[in-house]
Amino acid sequence: MKTFCGRANPTTGSMEWFEEGEDYDYHQEIARSRYADMLHDKDRNVKYYQGICAAVSRVKERGEKAIVLDIGTGTGLLSMMAASAGADFCYAIEVFKPMANAAVKIVEKNGFSDKIKVINKHSTEVTVGPDGDMQCRANILVTELFDTELIGEGALPTYEHAHKYLVQEGCEAVPHRATVYVQLVESKRMWSWKKLFPVHVEVEDGEKILVPPSEMENCPGVPSVCDIQLNQMPSSDFTTLSDVVTMFSVDFSKPVQSASTYYRVQLEPVRSGKAQIVLSWWDIDMDPSGMINCTMAPYWVKPTSALQWRDHWMQCVYFLPREETVLQGEKLYLAACRDEYSVWYHLQKARADEEEHKAAVCVESPVCRCRAHLLWNRPRFGELNDQNRTRQYIKSLRKVLKTDSVCLCISDGSLLPVLAHYLGAKQVQYLVLFFISLHFSLLFKANHLEDKIKIIEARPELLKPSHLKDKKISVLVGEPFFTTSLLPWHNLYFWYARTAVNTHLASSVTVLPQSASLHMMIVEFQDLWRIRSPCGTCEGFDVQTMDDMIKDSLNFRESKEAEPHPLWEYPCKSLSDPEEVLTFDFTKTVPQHCLSTEGSVKLLRKGRSHGAVLWMEYHLAADISVSTGLMQMSNEKGNCEWNPHCKQAVYFFSSVIESEILSDPTAVTYAINFDPKTGEIAMDFKL
Ligand code: SAH
What is the pLDDT of residue 552? Predict the structure, then answer.
């Protein structure tokens, strides 16, 4: 079987489809999966084990045989727990073939083959009866089918089906119940991920303000969940407007309904403010009494208990359709609407006749009407709203623009053409892809810019003199930013585009940014290392087969590649000084030959080297640079502050070294190579 995989080509800025062998998909899935993270989640594992033991005991006390159905067995972990707890038989269902195969091996290695039957099917395909997959219905239902939003991985339809066809009435369920909690907050930072704030530009005769079009102001945005490591959001970045409220819960031991519905709770704000965001998380009770509880509550909710770090379950940020001023003590209703797979929120002020209008809250799932939410993802909104960043671009444009400047901008969904126009460039053109221009026409219209900035829908290599009114470009600008970029250096597409429009550039052209540089630093992660670290045994069960599988998949293709992570969510400490390793000169065209560098970095701090972090810095104009990675490195401890809008590249070392002795620093040697033919950067590190 062949699979087609879409990948952005950094030399063309567009998606390309590659034919890959059957193994490719599977290795991708395993290498990037969260299985390792789940196996490292001690809190989760311990509580599942306790809950399973308690459920098996309850069934045994009733004098029944304990027959377990484990839907989505993965490594077989929960079934092995059940078998150890004395279950008579377990049906372990796993739809993903490589995992089902792994489960068979792991179950065998741990000596449970006679108690656990692994079935490689989707649970809705499983049959019950003398000739079926299961001899009889189960009386214990065990699953771990939850994502950060709880229901996003299809837990509800799976439970609905299982209760109808696969388990007995009155069965035990582990977990027994899940509860979703919410808290209403005001947060300029998080709100800036959904709204475009007005952009203020000081000009000679006053101030110009770019305002978002009204379509954008009232747009509900996109339905995809915004899941983040909320524990990395400092309390200074938001104000809680309500207490934590229980929104809804699901009892997994009873029939479950997956059809769309809504839940509504009454709220009284604890302080007045602007209601913008609903923060949400859930917990699961492993037993009916609620004594075995596993919670995703963030740090400010239970400040005394130790937080378990995990990446497979985080917290959700929901954006209200519009900002609402609320007063302390007033009566509000918060509604959570959900379909089978996702949840969204509405806030309503209580009115006397409210009860009769309850049904009105069940609104359709959010669909972006202004197109901005399709063009700009949440970090991109945050980036465009970052005033410090905008100021750097304004300052640099001011340095390079003249009244007779003919300016061309190349970047996806960028406000630079508007800034260039406000700052007095004579002629501004914006080179874009088609879908981008639809959105921009709304923004331009709202700001009377339709005739001021010319949108050119063309690929750079197809630019014609007529597009530019037969003028040569005197200022070429880019942020650079492209939506197809995954890794920091993929935005070097700007360099390729600049090369493609070379014949249209005036001999004295100014290119902004004039250059980019790649920076690198060796780090110790506080937690992120877990996603790549082998587990060995998990609650006493040997899961090394899984470790080996992940290692194999990582080696399949990706071993010499970095992966993108937003490091503001994943704290690390630097063990070396940051180093500039490569530079890319945008005043010249892309060279034919590779750009390579080799060297060594000294480990200056005590710690465990988990990997290298790489990021780009753009040199906009003389002494003005913006970093897409490190913003600041604090004190002797090496704590890092990362650009909150960008993902950085992380290259995990295959083995970790401990640096201990400061007087004799250990060195890490590296070789880094930029291939202009592919636009990719390959790297190798030796410890
Ligand atoms: N139970 C394991 C793994 C949980 S991950 C553990 O707790 O460590 C969830 C697994 O469920 C994935 O491997 C996924 O492929 C599988 N899965 C999800 N829905 C399923 C369904 N309806 N039927 C069968 N497998 C399913």
Answer: 83
Q: What is the pLDDT of residues 505-538, one digit of tens each?
A: 999 999 999 999 999 999 999 999 998 888 999 9
Q: Whose CA is nearest to atom 22 of ligand 1?
A: 123
Q: Tell how far the Cα of 366 is from the centroid of ligand 1, in angstroms.
A: 28
For range 655-675, the mean pLDDT: 77
Mean pLDDT of the chain: 92
Domain end position, chosen among 488, 512, 536: 512
Whether residue 441 is contained in a domain is answered as: yes
Say yes or no to pLDDT of 208 above 80: yes
Residues 112 and 20 in one domain: no
Q: Do 450 and 474 belong to one domain?
A: yes
Residue nearest to atom 15 of ligand 1 (CA): 96
157 lies in some domain? no
Separation CA 425–CA 427 (nearest Å):
6
- Same structural domain for residues 527 and 596? yes
Indicate the helix (H) or strand (E) that contains 389: helix 387-400
**Which residue puts its alpha carbon closest to atom 26 of ligand 1?**
72
Centre of ligand 1 from the C-alpha of residue 311, in Å:
16
Rounded distance between C-alpha atoms, residue 157 and residue 153, angstroms? 10
Residue partners of 349: CB distance under 8 A and separation at least 6: 324, 330, 331, 332, 333
* Ligand 1 site-directed mutation target among 80, 96, 116, most atoms within 8 Å of CB: 96
User: What is the per-residue pLDDT across 119-134, written as a single tens digit (0 to 9) for each?
Assistant: 999 999 999 999 999 9
Instruction: Show the ligand 1 pocket: residues with CB < 6 angstroms.
Output: 38, 71-75, 77-78, 93-96, 99, 122-123, 144-145, 154, 158
Domain containing residue 56 = 34-144
Indicate the Cα dihedral angle 213, 214, 215, 219, nearest 10°.
110
Together in a domain, 544 and 622: yes
